[in-house]
């Protein structure tokens, strides 16, 4: 199960826009849904692999103790394979799919409207597909008629291009958008590009802060703490030797800002 979502978990925290993330999540959910439909065939293959591993580790094939009188739910049949399929595999698969749907359900409603601003979708739709997004971001945009005119011009611009030349993401669309001529379109694209896919980066910062701000470092100033946190969070970014040499040779009263 986790191997199916491995690429998704690697890609989501990185710099991809929300429409791209929703498309990836939908692909994973489609695959898991097919596994749920063919659960009997898939579990037989999985159970055979588990039995081989258990045999190598000298683990006996048995089921957990079953209560004779169940009050909350019916007992699972006593066949070992059927027991693990109904009591473990199917509930886990269903819960896994539901968690993905719940996590991205709110995002999907926002993106369903905003993504129509992308050249790939705008040439196939009309202005009223953006109505939900326009109502939500009304304070950030100009008058509705102005936005509609910009959308028609934006649509006309990309309808003359070949489909393979159309930008597929909000970031690539921003690069091709004239900020002065398509000011409202630029704002909507920017909103779509910066909507967070997940909170993994924020959680990582809190985890780093918990390691840095200990009782032994309770008097650490805010500037130093921010610097240490950035070094810890972005440890994959290499610091230039010139920066280290300058810091090492500088007088102690020099303010060093990361």
Automatic annotation (TrEMBL):
Domain of life: Eukaryota
Organism: Araneus ventricosus (Orbweaver spider)
GO molecular function: protein dimerization activity
Name of this chain's protein: Repressor of the inhibitor of the protein kinase
Domain HAT C-terminal dimerisation: 173-236
Parts of the chain that traverse the membrane: none
InterPro entries: HATC_C_dom, IFN-induced_PKR_regulator
